[in-house]
Amino acid sequence: xxxxxxxxxxxxxxxxxxxxxxxxxxxxxxxxxxxxxxxxxxxxxxxxxxxxxxxxxxxxxxxxxxxxxxxxxxxxxxxxxxxxxxxxxxxxxxxxxxxxxxxxxxxxxxxxxxxxxxxxxxxxxxxxxxxxxxxxxxxxxxxxxxxxxxxxxxxxxxxxxxxxxxxxxxxxxxxxxxxxxxxxxxxxxxxxxxxxxxxxxxxxxxxxxxxxxxxxxxxxxxxxxxxxxxxxxxxxxxxxxxxxxxxxxxxxxxxxxxxxxxxxxxxxxxxx
Amino acid sequence: xxxxxxxxxxxxxxxxxxxxxxxxxxxxxxxxxxxxxxxxxxxxxxxxxxxxxxxxxxxxxxxxxxxxxxxxxxxxxxxxxxxxxxxxxxxxxxxxxxxxxxxxxxxxxxxxxxxxxxxxxxxxxxxxxxxxxxxxxxxxxxxxxxxxxxxxxxxxxxxxxxxxxxxxxxxxxxxxxxxxxxxxxxxxxxxxxxxxxxxxxxxxxxxxxxxxxxxxxxxxxxxxxxxxxxxxxxxxxxxxxxxxxxxxxxxxxxxxxxxxxxxxxxxxxxxxxxxxxxxxxxxxxxxxxxxxxxxxxxxxxxxxxxxxxxxxxxxxxxxxxxxxxxxxxxxxxxxxxxxxxxxxxxxxxxxxxxxxxxxxxxxxxxxxxxxxxxxxxxxxxxxxxxxxxxxxxxxxxxxxxxxxxxxxxxxxxxxxxxxxxxxxxxxxxxxxxxxxxxxxxxxxxxxxxxxxxxxxxxxxxxxxxxxxxxxxxxxxxxxxxxxxxxxxxxxxxxxxxxxxxxxxxxxxxxxxxxxxxxxxxxxxxxxxxxxxxxxxxxxxxxxxxxxxxxxxxxxxxxxxxxxxxxxxxxxxxxxxxxxxxxxxxxxxxxxxxxxxxxxxxxxxxxxxxxxxxxxxxxxxxxxxxxxxxxxxxxxxxxxxxxxxxxxxxxxxxxxxx
Lengths: 272, 657
What we know:
A: alpha/beta; 6-stranded mixed beta sheet; B: alpha/beta; Rossmann fold; 3 domains; 5-stranded parallel beta sheet; 28 strands; globular
């Protein structure tokens, strides 16, 4: 691989490992529209990586490429040192990539607990028959999975709503439940699509705290898309900046902030 | 069982009680905590082992006899253990309010000279680290929940579980030291130091000895026949003396089980799951529960609503009598039994109060209808009156002698005295040793004979021997004819009506009482909406004739109930007005804890007070108000002054016939 960089240590003393995922010259088109044009970047193990850009820059498309929802026309996706063939989303999930959605995608009628349990799907081996009859270790498996889920409930401090149907929850809590479900899969790579959208200041602070804690406690690598620049600059180790489907910046928050092209894209620039 | 030398025999310290419990109730649950969705439990034997391990770990870490150990966090078994472990080491546990800000915490940590601080989680650790910048004495931090703390500098910081492991590893070396220290504990060694919240001035450290705690626990446990099979839910702040007595004193004395909720937010669910048999809650908790029940009933179907109201009427009529073991007709008993099947039983279960044998409320006045609601359901809810300085108990209501307007008879071992001024004094085995490092305050509160001033005025009811608290002593005055003036007592009576938010009663040194009333915008607004009464502002609503009519009805009802009271019949409200603005802390009319500042209000609205007394029927006034952003403005209003009917005191005998 061409730009294998040595493991590095972040400003706050976290050890960042080698490359976990690498996007090589990705181009994604919808008919005549080019959503992503020749973008390359990597995500390192243990890192919080942000993708930012103005509306319509192609951020969500990029996340969908990572999560296997879209297959790019050109370019390669490398995950854990191997080239990833085009995959269905469930296959990507089995690889250890979990995500949350910009417009919450939970099962409204189900309880918080059951919703998070669905995140354990990739960890359940027993067949339909065994599950239905509650035989052949199905019970033991359920108990193990429930334990894992309870740890996450404790971690995200949502004990009080464990049995509440998700449909009855306020927006900020739904976001947290979605994060819990993604965590339940014990992912290697966690993708967050605008985790702070529509939240008030306090909810944003809580969510930031949880993202940092997830990264710290479980060592989960996180890639996130976010509009709130303050949040992005505080949370992330490295930032990719996109505009009109192209990459216009990549580096630490400080580097990105002083990049003229990025400033222009965000503040607008006078065209003659 | 108890020996002759002292009322509690050899059991002269909390660690001694723990040893007894481990031997006597070894396999019975002592602590439960809900974690990861499951109730984890520890038997007395297990708890004793955990506490030993922790105590040895603390010694290994350098805890000396006489050191202060601050404990900060929500109610968790590990924190209760660290209190007892500190006692075992000959150190003094100092539980702190976990919601205190860093500044308040700094004062207490500095004042008690804490060398060790045991924290529940990262949030508390962060505060203590903040405090360390100004307070130098803190040597070691111990924390329970490891989350988020991995990267902190651990040169002076340890996880509680790691400390226990260390203690266990060094058992052979540390156990003799621990035993030696524990053997030195006696009746007069300090059991705990608790800081009073301090509405006036700095918090004071109340030092309570083993004698205070153990004798009080013994007396009160026997008073209510508490037993080892009882269950309590520990959810009130650990720094509050009540929690210390219930969750440590009485728990250790009787050997009952202390259950810790999963988190602050799950308290109601956990309450339902545990179903405590012995339960304490401030009036606020009961009020909230009742409101929720009523709101949900409003949304219920017509049949359910009918059933609920039909049987609640029965319960209100005969429930309290049945609870007190009085005779009730067979028909009523049958209705009540049916009601219990259809309504009260399920309702109590939903509230988590099905198994409550002994329930207490204290802290502030509870509305009689709230109190009666729970009594009517068959819940043995009682009132007690106490203070930190008394190790809680001064008076409490015995079973079958429960009334909303008294706080009960003196607790066993407590002597009461009413001073000339009406102030209540008490003396008991529970009376505190001293205020830590504050001999002046100690001397002014406790006289050489051991009598302590409560700061409350009250009287002992003839015949029943029940104490009735009427007011804060400093607020009580005399009217022109020499009869007692107790404004807060009357105000509380008025405030029990949902429509009345605040009331201020005047009358000190005058010939009659008059009052300012604040209506509650939520309650009255709701009523106005339902009755198609249009209003544009709080001011307009407050002067609406129909609103005034309602308020007048409430005032007259209060007057009637005051008239039945020999001591306070002179406090009936003759005239009142409804204020055009809400009393507000921003305008200095109330304290931040929402207590009315009588003096400030009297001065500020001097013109209105004059109008109340000079007989005018309305008054024009201008009032300065401060908006939330700090700007000032004026509101102008013409207020209508209403006369309220009073019950003549002379004809009282006739009325009460």
